[in-house]
User: Fold this.
Amino acid sequence: MKKPLVAAIVAMDQQRLIGKDGALPWHLPEDLKRFRQLTSGHIVVMGRKTWESLPPKVRPLPGRLNVVVSRNPAQLSLPEGVISAASPQSALEVASAAAKPDQKVWVIGGAEIYRATLPMCDEVHLTVVQGAHSGDAWLPEFEGDFSLAHEERGEACSFLTYVRP
Ligand SMILES: NC(=O)c1ccc[n+]([C@@H]2O[C@H](COP(=O)([O-])OP(=O)(O)OC[C@H]3O[C@@H](n4cnc5c(N)ncnc54)[C@H](OP(=O)(O)O)[C@@H]3O)[C@@H](O)[C@H]2O)c1
Assistant:
């Protein structure tokens, strides 16, 4: 069977910051809307800390198969239908095996999971948030291994799509 496309989706500021105290450093409805539009109907892969950062009413993220990565998956108490994986690599394998035709595998963070999986991603959907914020989680550089395919201005951010050259 054809392998599904693996795409990362992430929002960073101009200093590459992505997180603060286990949450997002900003509240950007236009970015949340885009996240929902792009990932709905697909499969999302996330680290245990990002899973825990989701507001209870959208945990698991509705309309998506949720895959959570942890070194101790047996200790997680996940709702029915949510899949756990013991490594980022096995999460991508499980997600790819579960993908139906036309479903993408979306890597949705956080920093540790991006670091481990960006080398395996086919695309990166990057939101660049205006200004500098404070926080404690950053996105590693990946742009050198990708080509910028599309750029779109939002109100308080820009949406960039990177693909493999
Ligand atoms: N701006 C954005 O687009 C965006 C997107 C997502 C998240 N975030 C932010 O990023 C921050 C969280 O990022 P983070 O790096 O602290 O955490 P994370 O990547 O969400 O999760 C880290 C956890 O994943 C598991 N893990 C990591 N590497 C693993 C490996 N090799 N094998 C097995 N399990 C592994 C571990 O879980 P166990 O400890 O259970 O073993 C680890 O503690 C939050 O502030 C969040 O809001 C931002």
Observations:
- The domain at 6-163 is CATH 3.40.430.10 (Dihydrofolate Reductase, subunit A).
